[in-house]
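Researcher: Good morning. I'm working through a list of sequences from a screen, and I'd like to move beyond sequence-only analysis. For each chain I'm collecting a predicted structure so we can compare shapes side by side. This is the next one on the list. No need for commentary yet; just the structure.
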Amino acid sequence: MKEYLNKFYNYLYGKNYSSNTIISYQKDLEQFKSFCKNKSIESIDYQFIRSYLSFLYDKNYTSKSVSRHISSLKSFFKFLLKNEFIAKNPMLLISTPKVEKKLPNYINYNDLETILSIPDRNTPLGLRNALILELLYSSGVRVSELVNIKISDIDFNNNRILIFGKGSKERFVLYGKVCSELLNDYLYHSRCLLTKNSEYLLVNKFGNKITDRAIRMIIDDVIRQSCLKLKVSPHTFRHTFATHLLNEGADLKIVQELLGHENIATTGIYTHVSNERLKEVYYKAHPRAKKG
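Model: Good morning. Structure tokens for this chain:
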């Protein structure tokens, strides 16, 4: 089992999966390995998988957690079958439990303006931090995609950036006038003081490529300074990007392309957020909708 897991992890690294995704796979699959004990990979069948899922439920795992474990196992066994390490895929008949989808958390317009105004643009690192926040909101990129942007990926004439997303899939994201001005300020007044030879757009104080963790720490610090009682992660900016586009009338298919979602159903969750906003406005504004 250990040998096959290592092959699978190497495959994930080769496909440019984010470090957080790989860690999640490893956590799930190492637990499965412990449950298997000395059982050979070829002898794992549908019934054995069912017994493992029962084990998870007995441990009071939520449907969401079990779904994640199933997803990890499906990816693993699909990889094994594709590379002919096994003859049959025991996950084919395993269905994923229904999970109630939580509406994505996003930032309203006023709070967003407060957050974006926090970094001190008069310092090299402050200007960089302002660009980080603006890029996350203006382009909707994942943090793992943001840290891997190279100068050569930016099309300055058309205000677009080539992004290498999940599974090494390429797409272009766009950025507007505000982000363009901030990007130019950073390149000419900040980045040149931080590094002379890095190919990456965003660098740390030592001139090296910035990390996912560093960006999360920057956002945490900005939220503390803003005094807003909000829970904000890099992904919150991605949620906000999508929600604001749909609120302003953007086509769902276009938002799907910009986010890099393979399935439009994944993007569809944001329409629920927009619908909630519509209901909120309706009940506040329409005379016949007001209670009492």
